[in-house]
Every structure is written in structure tokens, then in C-alpha cells.
Amino acid sequence: MTQQAAVSDHTATSGVLAASGLSKRFGDRTAVDDVSFAVSAGETYGLLGPNGAGKTTTIRLVCGLLRADAGHVVVGGATVSPASTAGRGLIGYVPQDVALYPDLTARENLAFFGRLYRLRGKALRARIDEVLDLIGLADRAKDKVESFSGGMRRRLNIGAALLHRPTLLVLDEPTVGVDPQSRHAIMESVHRFGAGGMAVLYTTHDMAEAERLCHRVGIIDHGRLIAEGTRRELVDRLGERDRITLAATGDLAAFAALCRDLPGVEGADVTGTEVHLLGHGGRRLLPAALAAAERAGAVVRSAEVTEPDLEAVFLHLTGTALRD
Ligand SMILES: Nc1ncnc2c1ncn2[C@@H]1O[C@H](COP(=O)(O)OP(=O)(O)OP(=O)(O)O)[C@@H](O)[C@H]1O
């Protein structure tokens, strides 16, 4: 099945967001080139790519903040574009740059944004309390934003996008430049939003973050979506292998020789007191490898399975490292 076919299949079954054939040029530069993907309710989808890959432009198209040269976006069954407001009310957009009033408190900022969403009175106050809890800032509600760390401001900015209970939350690199504590809090919150049934679209150039948070990842490079899937699917599709390192004593040469004959093992080498295996489905291979050690009269002291990561996938696809 081609990549495009896989994307279309998912579009057909998706609940919340379907972006099809999106393209955008700025002058003679193509920022986004025929990008299609879909995000379902309860799913966190990560757009992963290096600086300048086209992530921000893609999500601005998705949010109807930019007019596409080609393609269309549907959210919750409604078309989204700068000319149509129908689907935009279902989206909560958290831009890269924080937009808050520093001389207002956290609660006052949320009240301001809540009124823009036409929330008023008791309903607004109750929703602000809920949102402050969701972003872990309830204890700082009465403090002015000017006293907040960069990470806390970022969290409050996320809160502003949640007030109207969006079906789709779109976050543009929400953890860039924030302190580790806020980074953790943001990632925890995003995880909870997904678990609570919201569809989340998330951009990042941090593959470890994408691996931890996202159910599926779309890899974007030079404006094109070059692959998508779960981490495991991407790794498997590209034929990347797992590494198993077995620290052992005894006849390691015999142990490695037996391992070479195991189904799924593509290579077995001895280095010092370790046997290194290369193969697919590393965790599944482990019991057979341990049985082989016993047959060879070797004793395994420790075993470590290293699965290939998205960095390896990206390198494989583009020939360059993600962190250039
Ligand atoms: N308003 C604009 N005018 C001209 N070129 C633009 C504009 N916005 C984006 N671009 C160009 O489009 C390309 C994609 O940019 P975009 O901001 O979407 O990338 P990105 O993946 O979000 O990068 P980053 O991680 O640095 O935010 C870049 O080459 C950028 O210079």
C-alpha cells in the first residue's frame, strides 16, 4: 500500500480532522506540498520535522488562519478556511508565541479569552476553574502573568485555547524553551487531553517527545509528509532492526552461533563479555535467545533490547539527522 493510500484510508474512518492535499507557496518557495493526514477523537498526532519543514504553515492551514493554494480541511464535518468560520469554533489553537496580558492575573486572562468565546457569568467562572486545574495553575490563579515563568505562560496559553471545549486541540511546539517542570506538566496535560477524548495535533522537532506523546507521527520534510504511522509501524516499514545486548559468561562463541540460527535473528557477534544480536521484534526474540544460552552452557547476566527510534527513521528517510 502506498503512503498516500494509507493516509486516505484513515481519512475515511477518522472522526475529527481530515486534511487533504494541502499546499501553500510563499513566492517561489513551496512551504507545504500536497499534505494529507487525519486525526481521530482521542488520538494525539505529532507532526515531526526539522526547522523550516513546514509544520507551522501546515497547522495554520488546518486552523483556517492561512488560505491554502490547494487542498481542504474538514473538522467535525465542517470545512475550515479563512473564509468559513463553521469548523473554526471546534478548534483550540495554541501558537508558538505566547499571547497573554502580563499585567492581568491568570484568571483575568482566561476571563478575557472566555468572553471572546462568548462565555459569561457563572459558566465562564466554572470553566476557568476547570481549565486552571487542567493546566496545573489553580494555585496561581490570582497572580499576575508578569510573575510567571516562560513555561507557566505557555501553560496558561494552552488553557486559553481550552476554554470553549474544542474537539481538536492544535499545539505548535508547546515545549520549546520551557523549564523541565513545565515541560513535564505540558506533556502530562496533553496526554490527559487525548485520554479524555480530544483529538490533538502537535508539532515538534523533538523525537523523544513525539515518541512519548503521540499515538501516530507524520514526518514532514521540505513541506512534504514523507511517512506516517505509529513509531513501531515506521520502524518496521523501513526495515530498521532491534539490537539485543546480552552480557554473559561461559562459551559465548557457541552461544552466538546458536543465536544465528534462531528465526528472526539477522546477526550475532561477540564483543568482550557481551553477545550482540540484530533482528526484528527484539522483545519476542529474547526468550529464544535465553534458551540458546542455556543450550550453549552460557549464563546471561543482563539483557537489554534497544528498539530503533524516530531519529533512525528520519535519518533513513532523509539522509540527514533531525537535530541538525
Ligand atoms: N509568511 C511567510 N512568508 C514567506 N515564507 C514563509 C512564511 N511562513 C513560512 N515561510 C517559509 O516556509 C517554510 C516552512 O516554514 P514553517 O514555519 O512552516 O516551518 P516549521 O517546520 O514550522 O519550522 P520551525 O520549526 O522553525 O517553526 C520555511 O522555508 C519558511 O521560511
TrEMBL record:
<keyword id="KW-0547">Nucleotide-binding</keyword>
<dbReference type="Pfam" id="PF00005">
    <property type="entry name" value="ABC_tran"/>
</dbReference>
<dbReference type="InterPro" id="IPR027417">
    <property type="entry name" value="P-loop_NTPase"/>
</dbReference>
<dbReference type="GO" id="GO:0016887">
    <property type="term" value="F:ATP hydrolysis activity"/>
</dbReference>
<feature type="domain" description="ABC transporter">
    <location>
        <begin position="17"/>
        <end position="247"/>
    </location>
</feature>
<keyword id="KW-0067">ATP-binding</keyword>
<dbReference type="InterPro" id="IPR003593">
    <property type="entry name" value="AAA+_ATPase"/>
</dbReference>
<dbReference type="GO" id="GO:0005524">
    <property type="term" value="F:ATP binding"/>
</dbReference>
<protein>
    <submittedName>
        <fullName>ABC-2 type transport system ATP-binding protein</fullName>
    </submittedName>
</protein>
<dbReference type="InterPro" id="IPR003439">
    <property type="entry name" value="ABC_transporter-like_ATP-bd"/>
</dbReference>
<dbReference type="InterPro" id="IPR017871">
    <property type="entry name" value="ABC_transporter-like_CS"/>
</dbReference>
